[in-house]
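fwd from M.: "can u put these together and see what the complex looks like"

so here's what she sent:
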Amino acid sequence: MSEVTPTEPQRLAAEARDRVRFEEEALELSDQVYRVARRLVGSREEAEDLMQETYARAFRSWRSYTPGTNLRAWLLRILTNLNIDRGRRKQRAPEMQPLEEGDYFLYNKLEEASREPVSDQDAVVEKLSQTDVVSALSAVPHDFRDVVVLVDLGDFTYADAAQILDIPVGTVMSRLHRGRRILKTALAEQATT
Amino acid sequence: MTYDDICDQCEEWMQPFMDRELSDAERAEAEAHLEGCGYCRKRYRFEESLRIFVREVCAEEMAPELKAKLAALRTPL
């Protein structure tokens, strides 16, 4: 059988089908993308605006997406770029104060604060309230928070987070480390005061 | 290495362990230590519960109106 060059109508039909497929897949991911978006910004309104801008841009530039690659990461890359473009900020790490506490710090603090010896680790977690966690996360400086949100809430790998934010993997790791410590320090303060 | 050194190492590994980013050898070493160390095991279990808790309380569902707006952004056929 010889190769048949598709006619123009056939080509257009194939392209329309690819586009519809892309749009459907992107929309199916919108709940997951929103959950990350909501914690990258301070308010529901901002998250909603950002989602609309992101999807408008994604639908316009769908041809630059490579089928079979991580579409959720692709969408979040657009979203984080738009978020930065809003002029609110640049990807610049704030001044660093050394944080001496290790990763067992929060547990140690919470255990210390409870009257009885702790047998159940879930009960220790329940000392924290929803509003404490949400406000502590929103108080983490942007550069660190972006990474914490992508990895801890979005379940992205270090490599995915590096690609989404266009920073080296080593920077993802150090910001993640620091971001989580800032979060835990705030949680420890809230839970013990 | 003393006992404390191993616990310090285990503390440092906790984040990459939870993120599934340790090498196989490091992971095996951490698991072997956790097996015998209640101190570290408690703290790892706490970290696991904490992460689940943070994820749950930070999850805010999208408004149905937004979903409809996003769908309306598709290119008309």
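replying to her w this: The CA atoms of residues 33 and 52 of chain B lie 23 Å apart.
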